[in-house]
Amino acid sequence: MNLKSFYLIIVLQLLAGITTISAQQPSWTLTPFVKQDVDNPILLPIKNSDFYCPVSKQNVHWEAKDVYNPAAVVRNGKVYLLYRAEDTLKSVDGTSRIGLAVSSDGIHFKRQTKPVLFPDNDFMKPYEWAGGCEDPRIVETTDGKYIVTYTTYDGKTARLCVASSRNLQKWKKHGLAFQQEKYKDLWSKSGAIICKRVGEKLIATKVNGKYWMYFGDTSIFLATSKDLINWEIVEDETGKPKPIFGAREGKFDSRLVESGPPAMITKKGILLLYNSMNLHENGFAGLPPDAYSAGQILMDKNDPTKVIGRTDEHFMKPEKPYELTGQVNQVVFIEGLVYFKKKYFLYYGTADSKIAVAVCSF
């Protein structure tokens, strides 16, 4: 694409009422994404969704405070959104549960009245109460099972956990992703499993005989698994989790990096879209202090630990009113990616308060 054509596309998109959120990026990236301004935000908190909480033994308005940070999957020709919703429990600034919404066009969603994954009086209660179940990512297996990685929060420590389902409605909790004793209290979250696109499905795929998962919200780390349920952290020579990549001085990701949607095997390598935060002071001058934006990174398809490419610039940043102001200001946070109707739909949380979508006609 020459420069004249690029600017012509920008003008046409502005006239159509949509916003491009990517400049020229390396050829291996998944870009450009276009925010769907006419419809964003696509999901908002609602005050009247009642749910009987089995732990507190009371009815709660389970998505009254905020909805954000969704996972997404295509099933039977529709997009299903698994999203984080918070009630107004003040002791932990809202207990989180995971709701389910469905769409025929990827834009307009009808949500279910009850959450599908939530704290209960089960073996996970010590980890899930009272903070709840947060920030899901989802992949499918070759035999049609869905695997969700999600974060539990007990009010003190975030822990990465795993659940599975055949129908997206009933979920079996498998417990902590990292069962080893030394990692049971490890602060861990944001599990992005390596997958491959097969039609409209994102199928968990082994590399060198193992499943792999990027995770972390300071640096990005790796874990491997034989069954997608029990995971072992890739360690360095000292026996500690080995960082795969981290923050960069003077860049949009100067403070931290955090996994986005499931990593995807492409012709060029393993592509991971990731979230990042700018430093409060002396960070990237092109973003406000503490702003969350999104980048992309490419790993060797035969060695998930090896970085072979990384974007110098973010491809998404907070710029709309619903992205700038909310529970946490200046945030776009990507978690859900699907290939649907020959386009990529990227679902993201805005200001930890609402949900929006951007589309790439790749």
What report would you give on this structure?
There is one protein chain. The protein is mainly beta. The protein has a domain at about 45-235 and about 330-360: Tachylectin-2, Chain A. The protein is about 5% helix and about 40% strand. The chain contains three helices and 26 strands. It has helices spanning about 5-15, 125-130, 320-325, and strands at about 20, 35, 50-55, 60, 65-75, 80-85, 95-105, 110, 130-140, 145-155, 160-165, 170-175, 190-195, 195-200, 200-205, 210-215, 220-225, 230-235, 255-260, 265, 270-275, 290-300, 305-310, 330-340, 345-350, 355-360. The strands form six sheets. Strands 14, 15, 19, 20, 21, 22 and 23 form a seven-stranded mixed sheet that branches. It has a five-stranded antiparallel sheet with strand order 1-2-26-25-24. Strands 5-6-7-8 form a four-stranded antiparallel sheet, with no helix packed on it. The longest helix has 13 residues, at about 5-15.
What's the topology here?
Layout: H1 3-15, E1 19-20, E2 34-35, E3 50-53, E4 58-61, E5 66-75, E6 78-86, E7 96-103, E8 110-111, H2 125-128, E9 132-140, E10 146-153, E11 158-165, E12 172-176, E13 192-193, E14 195-198, E15 201-204, E16 211-215, E17 221-225, E18 232-233, E19 256-259, E20 264-265, E21 270-277, E22 292-300, E23 303-310, H3 321-324, E24 332-340, E25 343-350, E26 354-360
Parallel strand pairs: 14-20
Antiparallel strand pairs: 1-2, 2-26, 3-4, 5-6, 6-7, 7-8, 9-10, 10-11, 11-12, 13-16, 14-15, 16-17, 17-18, 19-21, 20-21, 21-22, 22-23, 24-25, 25-26
